[in-house]
User: Fold this.
Amino acid sequence: MRKVIFVTGGKGAGKSTYIARNYEGKESYHIFDLALLNKRLFGDYDSFLSDVDRQLTVWNETTGDCLDAFIDGSDLVLELSLEVGFDEEIIRIVSTCKEYGVPTEWVQLTCEPNESKRRVEKALKFGNYFSSVNYLEDTLIVFSEILESIRLTNELGFMESIKV
Assistant:
């Protein structure tokens, strides 16, 4: 079934780990992750945040990959870090999915504050932590555009209608 799976939680809640364990490498899922794509293309996480050309490259590749995967029947998996001030935007994205007839699933991960802090500090020590909150605004913008493309593609008949 074609749907969007939102995996949300605060810093250190285990969102990336959850996604890796449950969706990574599985044919019926496509993971939307601007940070990982930037790292794969350019070797780091941070350059995306300061290089407009890299941002556009990542935005365009992500949009094409997600739309192709969705048209081909894959579920899209999207990690969102819950941060103050973005709650309304995240709810808007979920509402837009529903408005466009795109089924959703929402996985909310929680963690005790001390455990969250311990996880983040441990990951920082090994140099493999990059908070998805750094990409949150870009994620919401790009995913909104992907949803609009899905709506248009569906309306134009270029994919089998979404079954609700």
